[in-house]
What does this fold into?
Amino acid sequence: MPTETLQDQAAPHQVTSADVPQDRIAKISAAAYRIRHHALNMGEVQGQGYVGQALGAGDMLATVYADQLRFRAGDPHWDARDRFLLSTGHYAIGHYAALAEAGIVPVEELETYGSDDSRLPMSGMSTYTPGMEISGGSLGHGLTIAVGMALGLRYQGSNARIFNFLSDGELDEGSTWEAAMGAHHHQLGNLTAMVDINALQADGKTDTVLRTEPVTEKWESFGWYTQRVDGNDVGALLAAFDNAAAQAAAVGRPSVILCDTKVGRGVPLLENREKAHFMRIEENEWQTCREQLTAGYEGKASA
It folds into this structure.
């Protein structure tokens, strides 16, 4: 393999939306709004859950499913599909919302979220849900699976890409960094990782549990094409994913997009809630959440 220096590997630390057309941004913003709305509706079924993460990651999920991912809604097992791997199984509520937006799961089925015999359990299970590529549980396994899958697809001569969604909490896991090193070793240019950096874990703020900064420099030192964006800025996300797609190849550098997000994004009532990892939302608050979400979206759309 060619020898690279860290300087050769370097990518811009911060990506902006400078040249992304407004109509494209509007399309993805609308998809993100619907994903967030679906997540609130699902959360109300249980009265609680990982709603804050779904809201925070809504723009990331919309960008992937409405703009980047190649799939067939009616044939989730299509051989030539791109694969989206959800490492963070507890983010399934957001993933189901994206699958519904993509037409892979019927919107009406979202009402069964977390119920007995539902295809939509509270933690993602590939054996239950169409479009769910892996089962999620303990963190730190997704990128390892993604590396194996990307390598296998390359051996098969497939031009399909792998998109792996991780959380910043997963950067605490040694297996994540072993996989990152393996991806660079095998030059898996068909692999793109995206990390939701919301600075919050079950045990508290990320920087108090296990500080991972400077995270951009860490990924760069592992040989990845690294970009950092505001993960709630649709234009910046589109630009970053376009950059990753432009350099994607069967053999080449893997890509990572580090996305700074805000838990509860779009719903002021939830954005500053203290216990935000697993939220308990009162019965009388759900409609307020939806109204705040809609007001914020319509205000931006008309601006």
Confidence is low (pLDDT under 50) at residues 1-12.
